[in-house]
Amino acid sequence: MPESPEVQALAEFLSDNATRRRVEAVDIAEFRAQKTRDRPLATLVGARIDRVRRFGKHVDIATDAGHLVVTFGRAGWARWNGDAAADDAPVIARIDLDGAVLEFTDGGDWLSLGLHVVDDPFEIPAIASLGPDPLDPEFDAAAFAAASFGRRKQLKALLQEQESIAGIGNAYSDEILHVARLSPTAHATALDDVERARLLAAVTGVMRDAACARRGIPLSQQKTAKVAAMRVHGRTGLTCPVCGGAVVDLPGSKAGAQYCPACQTDGTPL
């Protein structure tokens, strides 16, 4: 799943390369991806792209005829001018621009890509309800404290809850908790001041470092770059780069999440 560092890289790329171009034609291969049925993608034909920005894990392509908001879900992504060097996922939607082609793909077992055409991106509940964003320069201790950490909820789940903190998914939540040396099953309400400070530093550090690292990488190589940068996520059975212990799966995650017992749970497997 692309998370905010990859989506930020995509938004910056499109801002540099798609802004001021006009939509010449659109083609939808899978109509289930079109979430605003009364306002299909075809209504943007002839529109000029004015601005591209990111909201959490969503991209907003603002035109003079409305906003195209793309939700990538589990396996959605984008291609520019047919570049599929590292991604053979099927094309769900194609947008022909003057001088370029933008395609949206989905390589999952079930369709997760969503396309919305709206007057305002905040009409979409998933955007209107987003919590503070660690990539926002104004995200600080106050924003962090306001992120619903007073509830009794496991850290792994809370970090992925978009209403609490925007842009973090499965992979980066594993990385954040590893850097913070905290158990994924610890409850937010049980953290002391030192642990809370470590978690805040890890949230901002991991997400901002990842965003910087993804900047400028071709869209077709974003997933490969993300995987290569992981410390524990997706590294079951491999050596922890910090302590040399073995990385293991988080129970109940069906091998979808990982942690290091030595670094995060005092050496005791969950």
Distinctive features:
270 residues; alpha+beta; N-terminal domain of MutM-like DNA repair proteins; Helicase, Ruva Protein, domain 3; 2 domains; 4-stranded antiparallel beta sheet; 8 helices; 20% strand; multifunctional enzyme; zinc; DNA-binding
Question: How would you describe the overall organization of this protein?
Answer:
By secondary structure, the protein is of the alpha+beta class. It has 2 domains: 4-128, MutM-like, N-terminal (N-terminal domain of MutM-like DNA repair proteins, Alpha-Beta Barrel); 141-264, Helicase, Ruva Protein, domain 3, CATH 1.10.8. Helices cover 27% and strands 20% of the residues. The protein contains 8 helices and 10 strands. The radius of gyration is 19 Å and the shape is globular. The two termini are 25 Å apart. The mean pLDDT is 94.
What's the layout of helices and strands?
Blueprint: H1 4-17, E1 23-28, E2 49-55, E3 58-63, E4 66-71, E5 76-80, E6 91-97, E7 100-106, E8 114-118, H2 125-128, H3 141-145, H4 155-160, H5 170-180, H6 193-214, H7 222-229, E9 248-249, E10 258-259, H8 261-264
Antiparallel strand pairs: 1-6, 2-3, 3-4, 4-8, 5-7, 6-7, 9-10
Protein name: Fpg/Nei family DNA glycosylase
Domain FPG-type: 231-265
InterPro entries: FPG_cat, FPG_N, H2TH_FPG, Ribosomal_uS13-like_H2TH, Znf_DNA_glyclase/AP_lyase
